[in-house]
Amino acid sequence: MKQKRSLFLVLALVALIGAIWSFMILNTARRGANQTLDQRVQDVASQLKCPICQGESVADSPSQLAQEMRGVIRQQLQSGRSEQQVVQYFVDRYGQQIVWSPPWQGFTLLAWLVPIALLLGGAVLLFIVLRDWYTAPRVGTNDDDADLAGIDEAQLQRYRAQIEEELAGSDPIFAPRRMEAN
Amino acid sequence: MYFSDVGSIALILALGFAVYTVVVAVLGATRGIAPLVTSAKRSALTVTFFLLVAASALIISFLIHDFGVSYVQQESNLAMPWYFTLSAFYGGQEGSLLYWALMLSIFSAVFIFTSKRAPQALLPYVMATLMSVEVFFLIMLAIVSNPFVRLPVAPPDGRGLNPLLMDPGMLVHPPMLLMGYMSFSLPFAFAVAALITGKLNSDWLRSIRRWMLVAWSIQTTGLLLGAWWAYHVLGWGGYWGWDPVENAALLPWLTATAFLHSTMVQERRGMLKVWNLGLVIASFALSIFGTFEVRSGIISSVHSFAYSAVGPYFLTFLAIIVVFSIVLFLYRLPRLRPEQEFDSVISREGAFLFNNLLLVGVAFATFWGTIFPILSEAVRRQTMTVGPPFYNHVNGPLFVLLVLAMGVGPLLAWRRTSSRALWRNLLVPAIAAAACAIILPLAGISNVWANIAFAACSFTAGAIIYEFWRGMRVRHSHGESYFLAFNMLLARYRRRYGGYLVHLGLVLLAVGVIGSNFFQVERDAVLKPGQSLNVAGYQLTFLGNIAYTTPGMDAVNSQLQIWQDGRLLRYIYPGRQFYQNFDNQPTSQISITTFGLTDVYVFLADWQGATSATIRVFINPLTPLVWLGGLLMLAGGIICWWPERRRLRIPVKETYAEGAALANKGNGDHSVGVEVGPSGEGTLVVARVGDWSEENKNIVSKAPLSHRQDTGATEEPTA
After folding, report:
1. If we measure between CA atoms, which residue out of B657, B714, B650 comes closest to residue B682?
2. What are the chain A neighbours of B518 within 8 Å (beta carbons)?
3. Which of B52, B116, B142, B301 is the most exposed, having the fewest neighbouring CB atoms within 10 Å of its CB?
4. Which residues in chain B (474-513) have CB-CB distances under 8 A to chain A?
5. What number is the ipTM of this complex?
6. Are B237 and B618 in contact (CB under 8 A)?
7. Do the chains contact at A99 and B398, CB–CB below 8 Å?
8. What's the whole-number mean pLDDT along residues B632-645?
9. Is A156 exposed, middle or buried (0-12, 13-18, 19+ CB in 10 A)?
10. Residue A55: its chain B contacts at CB < 8 A?
11. Are B521 and B534 in contact (CB under 8 A)?
12. Domain ranges for chain A
């Protein structure tokens, strides 16, 4: 019964966390673009690479050019343009390499898809390997049993019990009951 | 005769001895001639000696300002203080390579001195591999990139060190990182030796694990120092920008971390041999790739300071390593079969596999993002950029999963976990996560992604602290005070609880990263004296600029006050410095003040005369936790690595006797043994008589037999 209780408690907690998160997601979606102008400038600027720096974004770079570009972004956002439009404005002038993240189209889609595909492939492979390992031990156990065939079953039982007991003595995980008595 | 000539000669001699070591070690091992192996050992030590001579020659050339040496002229000048003159040793490429070679030879010497405990059959091959790597670096040093090349005429003064490197962080960061890259050669050498001899037993595992922990700790230090340096020098308010060079340093760290976890599966269950060897080899190949990337200049980065012709050589070396390893692998594959089978997915093995998938996934995504611009350029002639938004999108969720796995993993037992125990163990961390998820929105933090990440962190922190608590309670019930119990846990089960400390450190670091990622506030303004800038509750009042000159450097500092709630907290002086010979490359003196867990980061972007300054202010919440967490990770790593002075004898008593009797009954072809791991955790082994210590192939059953000291273990000092 106790086992059931912790199971239900954990499930209830997971449900609670899930509820909070979905509520928050809905809430953010409803409020939408409730950001300040500063945050929006920062958002756009951090998507753009500073053209004269080495590996710094327009948001991060202390250079004069980046400072001016932040000014341009601010002006354009104030005049009512959307974030995408401002980014596009810079892409038109500096080329695609000014954007930090590769666009979701054409050849550069590979930049995104290959890692994701490999990760999924790895997960599937892991699953298959685990399943193989899971079904295979029958063979292995049979081998072991053949090796131990000459041994008195009662003695073997006692020996196993002893191992379990020592394990339980050392590792709290193996000895749930005793822990609760404490 | 100059000191630099001594250096040149020492390099050539070192090269000669290194080649000799490789040949003799392999001959000695294949023909079974012991004196040859001894000769190889001595010759490897001679290589160390000559590299020390070469390094000293370079240091002396720097200290006596021998500008006739091209490298000294390039990297130092008379105005530099002695410590920067010393650090100029690794300020350029030639010196970095010499440093790499020197450290490799020193590590080889340490390996030889401690080799009594290493598996003897592997020893010659480990030496041969190390010295082959050394030969590559010595050839580079002697031919392509010699630090001792002399100029026809010695100029009166040198050019001086790159001003970005004139920073205290520079004194320690590059040598640590280079040493980190280098230190992956030792596990690699063990992997090669094991592949050649086919011996992957528990001795081998112990040796390689310890060396990998060394490499991991050094690389962790290097990464942290790099982040610290970037935070204090570059002036963009952050410490990690997914810059190609940073990525290159992270890659071997990720694969090494994966190895340190999956190796436990091999240790306990004899599985995953191929995978583990692959990870070791990948770590080394990635560290060579890292060195190549920094040095070749194929990718532009804030961290690379030298471009040169060594790129192709490194690429060739990398190709040789990869091809050689793959050939060895295919040759040995039949002997790398797993010894045991999987019991259940819900087990610690399962958790480790999942952790490996995530770590390797992060490593691959990072690698892919780093090289994708090159691919794009080559395939489509299309220049493009892959920057922080890409990595944050791809790696961010993976890191959250990784943090969660860190919490769940330790709750699972080896082989299989009863669902009852699992649910009960999950309860405490789940409560911690739920509490975090509820409290944050109430405290006004409405970002859902931050909430998810923080909840994952508190889940894992809860799980780890609960683990500590349970261990302490068990010991406390035997009459130890809680404080003593805590210390004893760390002392007795170094690997387990040291590992938990590393995890806890990583969780702290993650909290810091989440804080500075989601809640950084940035503002810039042009200020006249008396004007103020308000950022996130802090008020910065500008007073004026101060200019001054020291030999070799001009500097400007602004004077500002930080106010909060009408209270003056502190005066700060952010500034810029112009070094002689590098006028177009001003460096910044960034003012970082920590109030509680929040950094106020002030950068002087521009100024006009004494009365106007453009300042950028970043409020970085929780960033100090990054450094705290990093230190905790290091401490945990060192605890895991720290050797046990005493070895415990397992309380065998009847169990052992009975097991032996049992084994004897079984036609007398079983033997029972007890392996004691370095942390005092034992493994009861029942094996068929034969070469059971040679290869664990014949092991019939193997059960972890960890024990407590209070079960009556007798202690005896190791001989």
Report:
1. B650
2. none
3. B116
4. 474, 477
5. 0.73
6. yes
7. no
8. 87
9. middle
10. 241, 243-244, 300-302, 387
11. no
12. 1-32, 35-101, 109-181
Task: Classify each residue of B20-38 as buried b or exposed e, where b means 16 or more C-beta atoms within 10 Å of its C-beta.
Answer: bbbebbbbbbeeeeeebbe
- B707·A133 Cβ contact <8 A: no
How is chain B split into domains, by residue range?
1-161, 162-367, 418-519+625-641, 521-621, 646-717
Is B455 within 8 Å of A17 when comparing Cβ atoms? Answer: yes
**Using CA atoms, how far apart are residues B97 and B110, in angstroms rounded to an integer?**
20
Nearest residue to B591 (alpha-carbon basis) of B621, B626, B623, B615: B615
- pLDDT at residue B713 greater than cutoff 90: no
Q: Which chain B residues contact residue A179 at CB under 8 A?
A: 470, 473-474
Digit-coded pLDDT (tens) for B30-62: 998 989 999 999 999 999 999 999 999 999 999
Residue type, B484: L
Instruction: Please give the angle made by the CA atoms of B415, B643 and B657, to the nearest 5 degrees.
Output: 50
- Residue-by-residue DSSP string for B262-276: HHHHHHHH---HHHH
Using DSSP's 3-state secondary structure scheme, residue B105 falls into helix
Record the tokens describing residue B397, joined without a space.
């969720």
Task: Report CA Rg, chain B.
Answer: 28
Using CA atoms, how far residue B543 sits from B255, B569, B573, in Å, is 50, 15, 10
Using the Cβ of A159 and the Cβ atoms of chain B, whether some distance falls under 8 Å is answered with yes
pLDDT band for B668, please (50, 70, 90 cuts).
very low
Q: Of the given ranges (A59-68, A116-125, B242-251, B424-433), which has the lowest mean pLDDT?
A: A59-68
Q: For residue B59, give the DSSP letter.
A: H
> Quick check: B437 and B490 in contact, CB under 8 A?
no
Whole-Å CA distances, B98 to A52, B55, B133, B137, B188: 33, 7, 13, 8, 20
* Cα B664 to the center of its chain, rounded Å: 48
| Cβ–Cβ contact A96 with B under 8 A | yes
Residue with tokens 């956002």: A77
Token pair recorded at residue B185: 């050669």
- What three-state secondary structure class fits A85? helix
pLDDT digits (tens, 9 = 90+) for B652-662: 444 444 444 44
Paired tokens of B537: 């509750």
Calculate the dihedral angle through the C-alpha atoms of B482, B486, B488, B490, rounding to the nearest 10 degrees. Answer: 180
Closest residue in chain A to residue B398, using alpha carbons only: A119
Question: Cβ atoms within 10 A of the Cβ of B598, count?
Answer: 20
CATH class of A35-101: mainly alpha
